[in-house]
């Protein structure tokens, strides 16, 4: 899968570059961080680097952990004229402002999510878009209709919006969460399994069979090593499982650019 | 099930009456219809009658089928100061305006649906609320967590928002649609099956077993008789199946009042 993800990444990047040039799109991004969460630093650096490589403006607003108030974030949101994102997690009970869809590059706000339910969201949350991209690339763009997909995890930023988008595409979707009787599920019965719980070991690689596509959304640090939500028992897995790192996360970062392009083209 | 639905209806109505009196809530509703769809007439009459019985104001705006323009509906929506609904279906390509959540008594608009995804919708779509009410009444209010629910149908007004609400309540949810391989599904493996396709015969009563709760959302007219989406093969069904008419539809009508009360209490 690593090679397939790389190819997909390069293809998408080339398409985005071509679109930006052809349509002369004013693509720009503002990233707001509060404090210095170490994982956030890596994610933000990757996004900044991508915009920089393409010569596109990407502003990084760094707010102090001590003294930053909700109203400070709300003012930034209210004045946003181009795509903006508030890097999660935010400290001290601060919450990301509920952005209007036209600047909501993460697609996390109520307007973007409501439009998603109605089937005309301007952008999908970046990780949801990554999962869709991988399914489309692996199974074919006409594969969604009738595709049997399991989505494990029910977060507002991955699990729930992914279920909605898959339903929009006429897939047969099953949603599981921590209260589901996971042991009783025949995971081999699904064409695609997406695991997005944030817990390493939610499922094991030997629960899957040849012909299945398994998308591992998790990024967890275990004993200093980055691992996904899926525990790899051995190297003999015959299912196609996306790697961590270098899988969903890499495409998610690219989709921030992809979403900024979509919003610029509105 | 008919008796259970009646009891639930009477309980809910009594609770709503008590709440309106105790909190002196200014409950009101405007219903807009365009043309004279015969099914709509029945639904609208039932809603009007319910408000009338309680001495609550319910305005009915009737627009002609010929000559009514989208902008006429949009003006009504823009000026709404209390709960309003546009009775579906609308003729001539007219669409219901996308209402702000605070007056969106049907919960069909993008703001209400976006808030639903985030887990804090002011109201659920009335039929979704009816399904939730029936599950809660039949299975217990603590039953949702881990409950295995199948939702058949993926409309914007029932299937999709019901899936989202059930995920919010930590149920294990499977969503099916016309592209799903229905014949391969073991329907008896679910605790609850909700059928909302609008097609009579989507599933048959003998596909269910004792102990299951089956919620039939459909209202179809076949040879002059009202029937649900489920075809009843015989009278020996041991599963609890909601009747049509007198099942979900009855509660849906009551939930228009319930939602108007919730919006008045905001």
UniProtKB/TrEMBL annotation, chains A, B:
GO CC terms: cytosol
Pathway(s) annotated for this protein in UniProt: One-carbon metabolism; tetrahydrofolate interconversion
Tetrahydrofolate dehydrogenase/cyclohydrolase NAD(P)-binding domain: residues covered: 125-264
Record's keyword annotation contains Oxidoreductase: yes
Gene3D superfamilies documented for this protein: Leucine Dehydrogenase, chain A, domain 1 (3.40.50.10860), NAD(P)-binding Rossmann-like Domain (3.40.50.720)
Span of domain Tetrahydrofolate dehydrogenase/cyclohydrolase catalytic: 10-96
Entry keyword set: Amino-acid biosynthesis, Histidine biosynthesis, Hydrolase, Methionine biosynthesis, Multifunctional enzyme, NADP, One-carbon metabolism, Oxidoreductase, Purine biosynthesis
Coiled coil: none
InterPro entries noted in UniProt: Aminoacid_DH-like_N_sf, NAD(P)-bd_dom_sf, THF_DH/CycHdrlase, THF_DH/CycHdrlase_cat_dom, THF_DH/CycHdrlase_NAD-bd_dom
Annotated GO biological process: L-histidine biosynthetic process; methionine biosynthetic process; purine nucleotide biosynthetic process; tetrahydrofolate interconversion
Keyword Kinase included in the entry's annotation: no
Any one GO molecular function term: methenyltetrahydrofolate cyclohydrolase activity
Official protein name in the record: Methylenetetrahydrofolate dehydrogenase
Organism, scientific name: Photobacterium aquae
């Amino acid at each position: 899968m690593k090679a397939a993800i790389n190819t997909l990444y390069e293809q998408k990047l080339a398409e985005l570059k071509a679109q930006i040039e052809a349509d002369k799109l004013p693509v720009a991004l503002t990233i707001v961080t509060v404090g210095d969460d170490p994982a956030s630093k890596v994610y933000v650096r990757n996004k900044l680097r991508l915009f920089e490589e393409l010569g596109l403006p990407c502003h990084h607003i760094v707010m102090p952990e001590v003294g930053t108030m909700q109203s400070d974030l709300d003012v930034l949101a209210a004045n946003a004229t181009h795509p903006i994102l508030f890097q999660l997690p935010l400290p001290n009970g601060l919450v990301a402002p509920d952005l209007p869809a036209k600047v909501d590059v993460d697609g996390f706000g109520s307007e973007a999510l409501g439009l998603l339910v109605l089937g005309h969201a301007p952008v999908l949350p970046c990780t949801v878009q990554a999962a869709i991209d991988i399914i489309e690339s692996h199974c074919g763009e006409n594969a969604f209709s009738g595709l049997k997909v399991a989505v494990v995890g029910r977060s507002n930023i991955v699990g729930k919006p992914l279920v909605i988008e898959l339903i929009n595409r006429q897939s047969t979707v099953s949603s599981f969460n921590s209260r589901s009787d996971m042991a009783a599920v025949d995971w081999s019965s699904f064409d695609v399994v997406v695991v997005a719980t944030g817990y390493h070991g939610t499922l094991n690689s030997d629960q899957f069979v040849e012909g299945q596509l398994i998308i591992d959304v998790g990024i967890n640090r275990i004993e200093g090593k980055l691992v996904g939500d899926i525990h790899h028992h051995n190297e003999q897995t015959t299912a196609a499982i996306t790697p961590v790192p270098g899988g969903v996360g890499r495409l998610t970062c690219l989709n921030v650019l992809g979403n900024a392009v979509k919003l610029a083209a509105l």
